[in-house]
Amino acid sequence: MSKAAKSWREKLEKNVGLPRIVDIPKKMERRLGKGKLLVPKPLDVDALIRKVNQGKLVTQEQIREKLAKDFKVDVTCPITTGIFIRIAAEAAEEDLRNGRKQITPYWRVIKGDGSLNEKFPGEGEIQVSRLKEEGHCIEPGKDKKTPRVKDFKKHLQKL
After folding, report:
1. What residues have CB less than 8 Å from 87, skipping those under 6 apart?
2. Taking Cα atoms as reference points, which of 17, 66, 65, 13 lies closest to residue 43?
């Protein structure tokens, strides 16, 4: 008998061995430098996203910087943070389907250049729709494929 797949909510609430602080791995030093690296827990990432006000935006980099500051380390792992942002997004949509009214506003998380996340639920279409509802203008990205928020820097919220 096989195990049932975990729900996104279960993945979000999974904290096995996290958060964890480690030395920045050698293979990541060129990109991140030397020092201490935080591997956050998914709920820490989700909690920061929940602080983003309607009409405001936050970048993945801002989330990583805030976590690093809070945990007094040099950097937060970009790979796990990206994965946990996606898990928060999927859990939010799952919560909505299950009747929850208040969900994590993941659509307010953008990339550092203002582009949207095509890995979010609906391949980014839900993000586009919700950002437009909040008054943002969406324009074609540099590559003409990935849309971005016009004048996104004016809407960034300090975490």
Report:
1. 8, 11, 12, 42
2. 13
Whole-angstrom Cα distance, residue 68 to residue 62? 10
Based on the number of CB atoms within 10 Å of its own CB, is 104 exposed (0-12), middle (13-18) or buried (19 or more)?
buried
- What residues form DSSP beta bridges with 109? 58
Tokens 């945990």 locate to 71
pTM higher than the cut 0.85: yes
Q: Give the pLDDT confidence of 68-126 residue by residue, as tens digits.
A: 999 999 999 999 999 999 999 999 999 999 999 999 999 999 999 999 999 999 988 99
Tokens 């956050």, located at residue: 40
Relative to beta strand 75-76, strand 36-39 is parallel
CA 133 to chain centre: 20
User: Cβ(9)–Cβ(51) under 8 Å?
Assistant: no
How large is the angle between the packed helices 78-97 and 60-70, nearest 10 degrees?
A: 110
Alpha helix stretches (DSSP H) within 1-159? 8-13, 26-32, 42-50, 60-70, 78-97, 125-133
